[in-house]
Amino acid sequence: MREVGNIRSKGLARTLGFVGGLLLILGSVFTFFLGVLFAAVHRSFLEGLGATALALEQFVIAILLLFFVVLAGSHRVDYRLAGGAVIVVVSLVGLILLGGGILVVIGFLLTLVAGILFIVPNA
Hints:
By secondary structure, the protein is an all-alpha fold. The chain has helices at about 1-40, 45-70, 75-100, 100-120.
């Protein structure tokens, strides 16, 4: 019966991780287009440049998190623990440093919960 619980929590963690990563990508694309729009209108060129740089950082972190969600979703227990730990750390750091828009914050929170779910059944 314990194996069924582990499989369900692993599936939930994988789903939350993918949804969070996709929300991060969507939020970074939105931030990028907003930055390009600010730079094109000349409202504030430096603000637009900063927003596009932030979007690039968010996109790279999202791809990194999606890679570790796939890695943690594998069948090996050590991959699940290591991937979950990296997901938790990267999500917390990203939430503190890169949390700009609502989509990005929700994406980081979902990946944080996914990382915790990857770790907890093995504790």
